[in-house]
Amino acid sequence: MEVEALVFDVFGTCVDWRGSIIREAARWSRQHARNIDGAGLADAWRAGYDPAMEEIRSGRRGFTPLDTLHRENLNRIAPNFGLSGLDEATLANINRVWHRLDPWPDTVPGLRRLRAKFLLAPLSNGGVALLTRMAKRAGLPWDLILSGELFEGYKPESKVYLGAARLLDLPSSKVMMVAAHNGDLAAASKLGLRTAFVHRPTEYGPAQTTDLAPSQKWDYAVDSMEALADTLAC
Amino acid sequence: MEVEALVFDVFGTCVDWRGSIIREAARWSRQHARNIDGAGLADAWRAGYDPAMEEIRSGRRGFTPLDTLHRENLNRIAPNFGLSGLDEATLANINRVWHRLDPWPDTVPGLRRLRAKFLLAPLSNGGVALLTRMAKRAGLPWDLILSGELFEGYKPESKVYLGAARLLDLPSSKVMMVAAHNGDLAAASKLGLRTAFVHRPTEYGPAQTTDLAPSQKWDYAVDSMEALADTLAC
Predict the structure, then answer these.
(1) Full residue range of the structural domain in which residue B49 is found
(2) What are the pLDDT digits (tens) for A222-232?
(3) Within this chain, do residues A59 and A48 fall inside the same structural domain, yes or no?
(4) B115 and B226 co-located in one domain
(5) What is the CATH number of the domain that holds B93?
């Protein structure tokens, strides 16, 4: 085992974006006397995520921070989810729910164990400020924050994975990508990174149809961050 | 007090580079049966630091990581300090002493207190990998690693301070530069950052002549990181 650094997908792999938004939406419903469908809001918001990044990956749009993309998508779907007519400060705070996502129960205990042996960083399409504030709130024990923002790109663009290895001053073979998404691991693997699949079968809710199993033979496949720590003898 | 993030100079402000090199040099002397003048080596090595960066700041040379600059300077001074004829792995390890610098005694306890109230990051001319490994070894509790490397620049270039505020998604007025060097604070202050001077009168040894006192009225001037935590009510 020559791996020195573990880099983690965050949305879905480390944190439960869907459950977190559902929980906050219940609060927004009470605060603003609305009847917000939290699950519907979370799913619709997330559905706009990849298409918004694809505009940038394709070169049709210059690099734009994820907070801005999230806000554009929120503005678009707000009328469908009882969020019309809220003031700017309220909408800005709702948009920052992506900074306040809760980790899966195994994430913090698993990362704490892994941190004793490896350098740990997110490698996310979330921005540096988002990832930093999320980690501070949730207690994610990162050694450093790595984000597509640092390379003005969005996974699965190669420059994000290669940029992370370069900043860590490691060959890609000493960096392992940890993700619940086969596409993320496929892109990392092609560039020489090691790979660990984390099974998150309810990231998209009880009816999830994607990423229910490894699509290739990754270096590791586990059910939790604690299982990853077990596997890597941490 | 509207500051949300504290960014720290590292070499001299958080860690004692001179004492650390002297301590390691004593070990190298024993290991390689040499008689290395550790203080002389530390001072000569550090004397090459700013001139090497100035080649890049001036545009005469493209951005080059600090590890490379340190190694070039080591190669130049090695014959004067009993370091000739060592093999490549040994020299590479000696060069990485800059990744293994020890904190001043007040640094870790002070940062731990400050971290409860503020986002904390280094903002150093050391590279991301250097700062990450130093923090892991020394227990520096950063929330994220910020480095001139992320902006392909070296302090006091404006792009380093402005880039840090941008990645933090904060106006510069909500970021405070903490440094033992008046020049660093002067550059930060001109760009709207808040400033805290930390008195490190023996950074350059007992005969230090520079930065013995604040050169301007900075927002704060303290004798240690614990005093900074006291002052900021952490």
Answers:
(1) 17-99
(2) 999 999 999 99
(3) yes
(4) yes
(5) 1.10.150.240
- Looking at B99, B123, B138, the residue that finishes a domain is B99
Query: What is the ipTM metric for this complex?
Result: 0.96
Quick one: B56 and B158 in the same domain?
Answer: no
Beta strands in A45-193 (DSSP E): 119-124, 146-147, 175-179
Q: Token match 């402005």: residue?
A: B162
| Phi and psi torsions of B10, nearest 5° | -110, -60
> Where is the domain boundary, A99, A123, A142?
A99
- CATH of residue B209's domain is 3.40.50.1000
- B119 CB neighbours in chain A (<8 A) are 132-133, 136
Number of alpha carbons in the 13 Å side-chain half-sphere of residue B76: 13
Interacting residues of B208 by C-beta distance below 8 A, sequence separation 6+ = B201, B202
Q: How many residues does chain A have?
A: 234
Comparing CB atoms, the residue among B128, B133, B143 nearest residue A132 is B143
Structure tokens at B115: 């971290």
Clarify whether residues B81 and B114 are in a common domain.
Answer: no
Pairing, β B194-198 against β B175-179: parallel
Residues of B in CB contact (< 8 Å) with A are 67, 119, 127-129, 131-133, 135-136, 142-145, 149-150, 167-170
Mind listing the pLDDT tens digit for each residue in A41-73?
A: 999 999 999 999 999 999 999 999 999 999 999
**Which residues on adjacent β-strands are paired with residue A123?**
A146
Nearest CA distance, A184 vs chain B (angstrom):
23
Structure token pair of residue B114: 């400050």
Q: Is the pTM of this model over 0.90?
A: yes
Question: pLDDT tens across B188-225, in order?
Answer: 999 999 999 999 999 999 999 999 999 999 999 999 99
If asked whether residues A219 and A132 sit together in one domain, one would say yes
Instruction: Give the C-alpha separation, B125 to B146, whole Å.
Output: 9
Query: In chain A, how many domains are there?
Result: 2
Strands across the sheet with B5-8, in order? B146-147, B119-124, B5-8, B175-179, B194-198, B220-222
